Amino acid sequence: MTDADNLRSGPADDVTARALDEAREAIAVHARMVADFPKPGIAFKDLTPVLADPVGLSSVVTALTHGCRGIDLVAGIDARGFLLGGAVARELEVGVLAVRKGGKLPPPVHSVDYTLEYGTASLEIPASGIDITGQRVLLVDDVLATGGTAVAAAELLQRAGAHVVGVAVIMELDGLGGRATIADGLGADLPVHAVTVG
């Protein structure tokens, strides 16, 4: 194994396993439940207080790297994925790429349109200045709900020549089918790592 491989090997599994326990405790203590947001009947779990807590942030970031090996780049999905993506990339000692909502980047861009529950949206990454061809990319976001945004982001990265090798999120929302959507869109073998399920 070369020094470059060691740099990309990620934290030891015993370290990330401890961080998973600490992160789950921090989420249990600090996450707040908001009724009827973003619409009536939905109970929204706000992770902002978890990330504002130093121990919570540190443990969540390390927990997101659990099982990561051979990563060349971390891609964080707009917008909370930016916060996490940069920190995870720092932990893994690799670079970070922001996957932006449409219209936020100067041209030229790679772009993908996708369908949401309430309409359509687009995601973009730069088409010049950054060559991600052949890079092994970990996709990071805060929450996995229906999975549509993660699939669109992965497809965008793949169109630009990258190999998406995993998805890591703080929380997977139970019962919304996000993991199944990712399996259908990107293949059942793509690892999906959630620090917690709620």
From TrEMBL:
Matches recorded under Pfam families: Pribosyltran
The protein's annotated pathway: Purine metabolism; AMP biosynthesis via salvage pathway; AMP from adenine: step 1/1
Molecular function in Gene Ontology: adenine binding; adenine phosphoribosyltransferase activity; AMP binding
Catalysed reactions, as listed in the record: AMP + diphosphate = 5-phospho-alpha-D-ribose 1-diphosphate + adenine
Major place of residence: cytoplasm
EC supergroup of this enzyme: transferase
Entry EC number(s): 2.4.2.7
Localisation: Cytoplasm
Matching InterPro entries: Ade_phspho_trans, PRTase-like, PRTase_dom, UPRTase/APRTase
GO cellular component: cytoplasm
A biological process from GO: adenine salvage
Family: Belongs to the purine/pyrimidine phosphoribosyltransferase family.
NCBIfam families cross-referenced by the UniProt entry: PRK02304.1-3, PRK02304.1-5
Its biological purpose: Catalyzes a salvage reaction resulting in the formation of AMP, that is energically less costly than de novo synthesis.
Protein name in the entry: Adenine phosphoribosyltransferase
Organism: Gordonia insulae
Gene that this sequence comes from: apt
